[in-house]
Structure formats: structure tokens, C-alpha cells
Amino acid sequence: MDSITLKCPVTIKAKVTEQLxxxxxxxxxxxxxKADVELQQIEFHAKRMMSEQAKQDAQGxxxxxxxxxxxxxxxLEFKNHMTEKLKETAKLELGAEISQGTLEQIVTVKVxxxxxxxxxxxxxxxxGKVIAFRN
Length: 135
Hints:
Layout: E1 3-15, H1 18-56, H2 61-90, E2 97-110, H3 115-119, E3 121-126, E4 129-134
Parallel strand pairs: 1-3
Antiparallel strand pairs: 1-2, 3-4
Protein name: 16S rRNA processing protein RimM
InterPro entries: YlqD (IPR021297)
Pfam families: YlqD
């Protein structure tokens, strides 16, 4: 075998611009809004579920309340995380580079190739457009 084909990670980075900050803030605010809607739905359904549980088996009320409180707590923690992320986004400096995740590339590696050059690949974006490839 002279070569092998591999999947290697490619880091996606974005250059911070005013437009990127606006897009990130809008995405985060949408997530906060969705968490608020879910909290309202949980509370709405909780009242009905607690009422039905009380009619069927009052001893199950404590377990049901704990389950509802657990779901509510998850949404509140997510909302707090998003609120912190919104503050961090506002503080991003223009021109800085931030990571936006990873993709995979398929490469053919031969004996003698430096595998690290394939493992450290990056794509730099500016407002969604590719402006550089880095190894």
C-alpha cells in the first residue's frame, strides 16, 4: 500500500465583523426566546399534569413535581448560558478570529507525508466568505 485515504478535521474560524456580531447576537436572542417559550409551555402543562396526577395517585405528585422542576431548571440554565454568551459576543473585538466548529476533509496520505499538516487545517471566513486556507 502506497497511500491511505483519511478523514481529517478542518477548523472553521471566522473573522469578527460588525455583521458577524449582529448575526451571533440574533441567533443567541432567538435561542433565549425559544427557552422562554419552552418555560411557559412547561408551566402550562405542569398545572394540568399535576391536577391529573392528584386525581389518579396523590403519592406520585412529588416525583412529578421533581421531574417538572428538573425540566424547568435545564431551561433556566440554558437561558443563563445564552445570556452570558450574548454578553461575550458584545465584547468581541473586531478583526479577532473565533472558532465556529469543525468540518472534515478527505485526504490521501503517502509514506513520508507530514500528517500534522493535514490535522491542523483551518478555513478562515469573513461574513461567511472564505478568505484563507491555513495548514
